[in-house]
Structure formats: C-alpha cells, structure tokens
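Weekly modeling sync, notes
Attendees: S.R. (lead), two postdocs, one rotation student

Agenda item 3: backlog of single-chain predictions. S.R. asked that every request posted to the team notebook include the full sequence so nobody has to chase files. The rotation student volunteered to paste the first one in as an example of the format we agreed on. Action items at the bottom.

Example entry:
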Amino acid sequence: MVPPMQEPELPERLGKYQIIRRLAYGGMAEVLLGRLAGTDGFIKEVVVKRVLPQYASNSEFIAMFRDEARITSRLHHGNIVQVVEFAEEGGQHYLVLEYVDGPSLGATLYELRKRGERLSIPEVAHIAVETARGLDYAHHKLGEDGRPLLIVHRDVSPSNILLSREGVVKLADFGIARARERLSPTQGGAGTLKGKFAYMAPETILRGRLDARSDLFSFGVVLFEMLTGKSAFTGETEAHTIQRVTTEDLPPASSQNRAVPPEFDEIVRRLLDRDPDNRPSRGLEIVDAIANLRLHTSPPPSELLMETITRLFPIHRHEARDRATVRPAKPRVIVVDESRTLRALVRASLGQRYNVIEASTGDEARAAMRGAVPDAVVCQRTLQGMSGLELCHSMRENPRLADVPFILLASDITPELEAEARVVGVQAVLPKRFDPRQLEATLQKILES
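Predicted structure, as returned to the notebook:
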C-alpha cells in the first residue's frame, strides 16, 4: 500500500531567500512566500514556486517548468507578474516571481458572491483594460531575432488575474503557455488540451486550434463573470461544461445586471463569438472600446478597486521590518454554517485573533481549502448537501487536510454524537448556541496542542 503523500517540510531558506510561509500547495509544485534581505535595511518579498521533491527527476515536468521561466522572463510589462530568477539548489528547482500583495480576481469574485454583491462597472472596466493590455503585450512580443514569439497564455481565468492592494492588475501563471520557442512540444504543442474547460475557446476544445484569439475568448468569459457575478459556462459535469461552451449562446450581461451599458454587452458578444475571425484581433481593440464608454468616476476606478479589496480582505500588518523574522498571518479558520447570523457571531468572536473565512455549505468549505490549508474548521452539524461529520470525514481522507483541527457545533449534544464525532476525527463538540469565550478558549487550546 502506497503511503499518503504529505506536504514537504517547509525549508528555512532556498538560495538567498528566507522562506516565510507556504501560500499554496499543488499537485506537482508548491508556492511559497520568500523574503530577500540586503544591506541598509533592504527587504523584498517574493513568491518562490518550487517543484515538489518527488517530481524533481521528472524530466518532462522540469522542462515545462524551465519553459515557464524562459517565456515569462522575456515579458516586461506592468500588467504581467515579473520573473526574478530561475534557480536550482541541491536538486531543487524553483522559480522566483514578483510578489503581488493582494487577492486573485477569482478570490475577489468568490467573496463578493458570498455577500450578494458584484464589482462596479468602473472596477470591471479597469480590470478588463489592464488585463487586455497585458495580453496584447504578450501576444505581440518579439524575440531577439525580431520574429514574433507567438505566445498564447492558454489559461486566462479569474485565478490567474491578480489584484494588488494598490489597485494594480497583473496577469499571472504562464505555466502552460504556448510559444514558438517552447522547449517541450509535448507540453505546449497542438493536440494537448490544457487549461480550464469553462474558460476555453470552442475551437480549442473541438479542433485543438490555438492562437491569441483563443485567449481573447477566455478573456470574454472572465469579463462576463465580472459583469454578472456568475460563471458563464460552468456545468454540472465536465461534459456539460464542454457542451455549453461549444453550443450555448449566453444572454447579454445586462439581462442579469441592469448597470451594464449596451456597449459593454457588445464587447462581450464580440469576444465570445464562436468564429475566431469575428472576434477582436487584439487586446488593444478592447482597451479602445472600453475607453469609448467614458466611464469617468471620482475617485478613479483603481481607487474603487483598492477600497473593495481592503473591505473584502482586511490587512493584517506584519511586525516592524527591523525584526529578524516576519510574523505569520493570523491563523486561518473556516466557519461553515448555513446561518449568516451565526457566521457573523463567530466572526465577531474570533475576528480579533483569527482570519475568519465564511462558508455556507460543505462544498463552499472544500473550495476554500483548495489553496492554503486552514488552521482550523468550525462547522455546524447539519448542512445542505453534506453534514458536518461528512465534511470532517472527507478531510481526514485528504492527506493535506488530515490534521486540520475540527470543531463541531450541534443543537443537541448526546454521548452518541460525541462518540461518532471522535470516530471521524472531530476534536471538540460545542453547543450551537455557544459561549464566545468557550469557543475561543477551545480553539486556542486545540491549536496550541
């Protein structure tokens, strides 16, 4: 029997970079927050993307990793995450990237959906213009020989658009991009479908065709999602998603959001045309079309976006920079309950000491765990779709989440329930009408142990 895969121990350093914490953990690589310290108090935070040790000898994956570094290192644009360096130390390959202090567009849309909110039209326009500029630059970048590099991102989606706390928009993750000089054709060549089907152009799904206009279709899907707050093509299954992308005509975004001007509907319609020849030929056409909307606001859209990010993702200040280490972020606690009122009570109880992430269902909770592993989960016993005990059981079967402390809230606590909870790995069962001090003390005791 193969033992379950465990997250590797966090290294103290990689090359000249002090490793602060793990930001994300994927199938073949992990993303770390690093820190470069120099003389006279110079400090720079970076992102370190490291190949997991068990894949260090996978030549095909290493070739793809090198290609990502080669492609992205040539892209010097304010709307594209910059490469700092690519290095190898002791058999460990890692890519050092610019650190964007802020959430992804995907995380932002998720938080807004939970609150029944959307981005404002000026904010959407700002994000769209900046993303389109980054895409246009990548699509038309020339190589040293003066020939086009023919870069296609292939994964334009909300998770790969980063929003800084200053309102700056950056396109990230060229890990599966295709380019003329890509070294590993099996990773970037035609016939290999890579990316997310819900954002993939129909000609790519059906015929494997791929060029800059395919990225613009994906961009149109993202634009529709920003305007409506809803996914454009995501279906109940992968096959259903593919069927929707290749056959379904979307309603105008204005039919779901009255604030959308008709001109914006037309931009989305052109981007989502199934015939690539009918789409805009380049990203700058989108920049010009949105500029013609004359969406002038006071404050400017970038400041509106700053305010939205600050509200959705409160800042937790690091300790003074002259300290030898950086204090980790507040422990991340996911609170799962169908009652918005109870979630608000838990947030009010724990918010001073913990970063509280809210979820109303087990599926929402699992989605919140796909990035950084939470420090603890506080969950209602009865949920729509799956119970709190079922959620805990599913976590214990996942090596990444097997050790995450789990507190169950129940209206009627019986010895039978407590025994069942212990079997699936629940650390504590508390009354749903909890005493805030009891919840905080229980959580603190569990985390300290």
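Discussion: group reviewed the output briefly. The two ends are 30 Å apart (CA to CA).
Action items: rotation student to repeat for the remaining queue; S.R. to check formatting next week.
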